[in-house]
Recover the amino acids of this structure.
């Protein structure tokens, strides 16, 4: 592929670490630092990873940062409503233009995810530290490269169906939970030229982002949603006055109508 | 099926008729009147059809009207921005809860359609009164019941790809245009419990809604997107504290974390 | 819809009942009799249900029987290889032409299912009489009409992913199994004009077809896959010598090439 | 990605060249030679391309050749029925296990394509040397990398809908034909671990495989369907006697039933 490294921005709400000792102890430098390390562990010089936080000006997502981001990862939970609508629109536009987006765990309720999905994005949940087993249901997919047919997380928060999303373009993982639920834990969608990958694991009070399988999926995901040149795309609706092929119609056209 | 008639509300912007003599002459009682008649022509006592207009209080879409609507059809063009966001949210919520929605022609840029799709919804266009031929690509689908393998509209506005939509759950029609473009003219998506059907024809300066095939598709569409009882659905994200099956985990759960 | 009842043929291998006392005790008149009763329980005069068995001439699926079948249900396990290829081809052709097909449980390995899917159709399995919980993931779908958000089967054979099928057009149920697996238990596909519905439950040594939810799904499925008139369909590849629109090309065509 | 080149085998029926002077003049070394050159033109050392012909022993597709093929391209027309069923089964198995397959033009009726699709695979056709314009409808897809929003072929055989295929996982091109038809000209499906890409252009009496856009798509396609390691896959249906998680069920299991 390209010789240029994939430019990744790890976006993090960074709220729990400041309020909850369990989280702070697990992630002394913030969850974003561990996600960054996880991606770099597998991709090395294939990526150049930066971070951005809610607390920063423009949430760290200035136009310049986004223009220089190929793949954005998103973790949020408590502070979804504190994300500025203008920044959400900015990210949205970049996704349509081709930037890859990886939405993690409680990011299912992030403004940007709901805006891209067009559905409620709700789900069931339970914090009982139960076991999760993620089954691969798309074994040839690049995102599962190097995985076994399932992997387990010993203690997780449960997310259960109904997960209120549009039919995924690709369903990659289905989770089994000890307490009795199932969940579509790995899904992709195309929006404009951009690819969106939702990946379920990531509860802040468990060491999820230290798990080697989770990190592998994250790294595979970065490579998968990274943009190609593709063919032209525009958010405009262009008028094509001159037909490409001859029109034999003899209908009288009222020129006053030519406005859209 | 059910003995109750399907309750349809035909929503119309109703702007062109007041400003353009061609449109006024074609649709002296408004396009909504002709759409209503078209649906009734094929479905008779199977439907009960009302209309609602932008100019009415709450655009004619009060909570009561929506609560008593099974299928909403939507035609808009010039005045998309005049539709109140609160009404859009109200319609959106009803679609997720199961109300069927049929979006017509220039409604591709309606707020409600963009909100449900999560994409830019742009397209190419040309007003040259050219011929359109709509090919059926899903011959067993209820929406094409009674059609031939294609039908033609002698004079139409052209809509061309790229149509910036998410992958349709079902692709039903592809249009050929005399001037050289193609278009995915009939598409469906599921959003929450609701079905959305986009149908391309409907330019205001041509007698499109008098065409028997267009009317047949409209009627078939009403039946197709009409809601079923289905299984439970909620826009909430419920906590399921009590597991359905026993959890053998021995992990200590910090109760202070139990907040979502 | 039509006033005519849907003509259903319940096809059954009918082998286990003769060899295994448990099955014979559960289904003294054969599983097909109970499936038939289940469909009739919910659909009454909306259906006319017949049965056909492997042991009958042409497996009970003569051309005449198939020509008068709107929906075929298929249960097989031990004797997949005893089904005549000619009969499989006959069923296949009818599905493409619009007959609905419901494939049940171990029918995942039936010749007709593999031929329609184009994949291996394998899965994992275990007979440990464990609990299965089927979660609805498509709450507005006609097939789940009248169900709750999940239903349970106290004792079932387990089927686990990877279920080697093409991406379903619609995913309706995901099963949770006590022993740790998940499964896409309700899926639909379109093939030609026909709809195919695979529904997992149905192990012969448990009273699955007496379960009210299973019967409800079976009845809903019959209504869902029943054919419409639709638009024309042909298994031929017709030559369309005369173009529908004028061709301005000036290329010399070698007439000797006109053979496909 | 991998440092190893993608191993491509270009399979060709190689019949028309021997019977038709037009074809022989266009492709003096056979169409396969030109396809090979086209792939190599864009991918250079990223690929290692071999060819295989119907006329060779085992049609050039020995088990060894297939075991050393990452991507197989397939062109056939007159001699579909001369392809040995055993070879078809061999290719089929390799696709499910992960080998990429690119089916070209009249290959829509090849045994291997029909077996993988599970449908009739028919279409309409006309040889009138008309113009074809292929529109990109998936602008971020790797297969359209480097293309404009459409490309044209001045003289082609027409293929028209209904193209009797299962819903593609991805729809990439829609063709417009001068004579009035449309066609889904670029489609992908997943089968087992393998990716299948159907690409329409390729009529033998026109210089299609010399066209730079066609060659670019072919090269992009090779990269897209090339297999990854992925996660484990098996054509077997394994019994998983030992549950992954404890089963609390108390049901008596009759051991004599444990046979699948």
């Amino acid at each position: 592929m390209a010789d240029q490294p994939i430019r990744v921005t790890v976006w993090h709400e960074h709220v729990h670490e400041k309020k909850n000792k369990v989280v702070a102890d697990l992630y002394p430098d913030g969850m974003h630092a561990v996600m960054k390390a996880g991606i770099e562990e597998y991709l090395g010089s294939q990526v150049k990873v930066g971070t951005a936080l809610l607390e920063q000006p423009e949430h760290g997502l200035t136009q310049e940062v986004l223009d220089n981001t190929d793949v954005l990862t998103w973790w949020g939970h408590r502070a979804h409503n504190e994300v500025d609508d203008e920044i959400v629109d900015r990210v949205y536009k970049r996704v349509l233009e081709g930037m890859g987006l990886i939405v993690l765990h409680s990011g299912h309720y992030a403004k940007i995810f709901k805006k891209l999905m067009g559905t409620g994005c709700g789900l069931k949940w339970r914090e009982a530290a139960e076991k999760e087993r993620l089954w691969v249901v798309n074994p040839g997919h690049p995102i599962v490269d190097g995985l076994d047919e399932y992997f387990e997380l010993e203690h997780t928060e449960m997310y259960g169906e109904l997960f209120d999303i549009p039919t995924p373009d690709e369903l990659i993982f289905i989770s089994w939970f000890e307490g009795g639920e199932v969940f579509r834990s790995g899904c992709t969608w195309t929006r404009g030229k951009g690819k969106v990958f939702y990946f379920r694991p990531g509860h802040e009070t468990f060491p999820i982002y230290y798990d080697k399988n989770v990190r592998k999926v994250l790294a595979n995901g970065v490579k998968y949603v990274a943009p190609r040149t593709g063919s032209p795309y525009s958010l405009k609706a262009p008028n094509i006055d001159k037909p490409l092929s001859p029109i034999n119609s003899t209908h009288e056209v009222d020129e006053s109508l030519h406005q859209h």
Notes: Strands of chain A lie at 6-12, 47-53, 71-75, 100-104, 124-136, 150-160, 170-177, 182-191, 194-199. Helices of chain A lie at 16-19, 21-26, 31-43, 63-67, 85-97, 111-117, 212-225.
